[in-house]
Amino acid sequence: MKRGSFQEMKSLNKSIILTKILNDGPISRAQIAKETKLTPPTVGTLVKELMDQKMVLESSQGVSKGGRKPTMLIINQKAYYMIGIDAGPSKIDAILTDLSGKVITNLEYKLSLPMTEEQFLTSLIDVTEAILKQSSEYVDDIIGIGVAMHGVVDAETGYSFYAPNLDLHNMPIADTLSNHFSYLVKVENDARALALAEKWFGQGKDSERLVVVNIGNGVGAGVTIDGELYRGESHIAGEIGHMTIDLHGERCTCGNRGCLQTLISGPAISARTKKLIDQGAATSLSQVEQLTAFDVFQAAEAGDLFAQEVLHDTGSYIGIGLTNLIHTLNPSQIVLDGGVSKAGKYILPTIKATIDERALTKTAKQTIINISELGDHSTALGAVALIIVELFAKNGEISI
Question: What does pTM read for this prediction?
Answer without folding.
Answer: 0.84
